[in-house]
Amino acid sequence: MKKILNILEKIVLVLLIMLLIYALYSKYIVKNKLTTIGGYGFLVVLTGSMEPEIGSGELVIIKKEKNYIINDIITYIENNNFITHRIVEKQGEKIITKGDYNNNIDLSIKNSQILGKVVYHSKTLGIFVTKYLKILFIILIIFIFIRLILRNEKMEESIEK
């Protein structure tokens, strides 16, 4: 049983490291606007412009689509900001969006600005990502270093014998 747990631990560790390397590569080397995994992007909404449907601090999962229709909630990029609003009108190539809580419509956007359609949102996961994931990541790094130190000590002891 201990051997199986060690193997599972190594697999999880390798997957987490690969995920971190992919995210860093995507953001800093390729300079993607949004890092996606399997075609899905993950963002945390920072404002209440989509209340009550999507609140501030909620995690949204978006997926790139070929076509978007009126009432789809989309995330698009404007001036290097991610904006999650609802499509309220389409005029040929122009797409008009509006936050549910806002009084005024947004400036029109192009289809090329759209990063994806919101396919899922969760307040609980948003709290987890913004607060606990950072703590979990720090604990993971500490755990890795402790394991490496212990492994080196065991190797030194076996060499000395």
Question: Would you summarize the structure shown here?
Answer:
The protein is 41% helix and 27% strand. It is of the alpha+beta class and 161 residues long. Strand 4 (73-78) and strand 5 form a beta hairpin.
Write structural notes for this entry.
With 161 residues, the protein is an alpha+beta fold. It has 2 domains: 1-32; 33-160, Umud Fragment, subunit A (Ribbon). 41% of the residues lie in helices and 27% in strands. The chain contains 2 helices and 7 strands. It has helices spanning 2-29, 123-160, and strands at 36-37, 40-44, 59-63, 73-78, 81-91, 94-98, 114-122. It has a 7-stranded antiparallel sheet with strand order 1-2-3-7-4-5-6. A hairpin with a 2-residue loop joins strand 4 (73-78) and strand 5 (81-91). The chain is elongated. The model has no long low-confidence stretch (mean pLDDT 79).
